[in-house]
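Progress against Task 2.4 (sequence-to-structure conversion) is shown through the following example record, which the project officer requested during the mid-term review.
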Amino acid sequence: MRTWLLLVGMVLAAVADPAPAFAQSPDDILAKRACDAVHAYVHYSIFDSVTAGARNGVVTLDGRVTSIEKKKQIAASVGRTPGVSRVNDQIQVLPESALDVELRRTIANAIYGHPTFWPYASMVRPPIHIVVEHGAVRLTGTVASDAEHRLAYALAQVPRASRVTNDLRVK
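Structure tokens generated for the chain above:
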């Protein structure tokens, strides 16, 4: 009886105070807040792709955007995020090019116009980003399956695209 009570007590103690198996570090939490600030920027679009990392209160922004104004405003917004002591802005501005603009629109129409991606197209912040620089295409963001990953890549293979890099992540 005593052994049984001891065993029950140990199990209850373990359940009452479980070790945090998936605890996030302060840097992870800050990086998530910075990403939220980037995505909350009203002019952030499917043609921009910015990532954020944090270390000891310093947030590093990396990626590409379509205008210098976006670069400045995103960095300023992240800088106002609680816990950010400094922003290391490594965002690059994509060059203005008629070919790149045309490729962005063509690929966006191909991907988001496909019935598989209609649910994404109706989202406030569609998850597939199309970054075009000097005719080179890079897909970033997330999709729900390997099939969507492959389909988005196939749909991005349009004339005049010099190459397509598929950096989409599967959730």
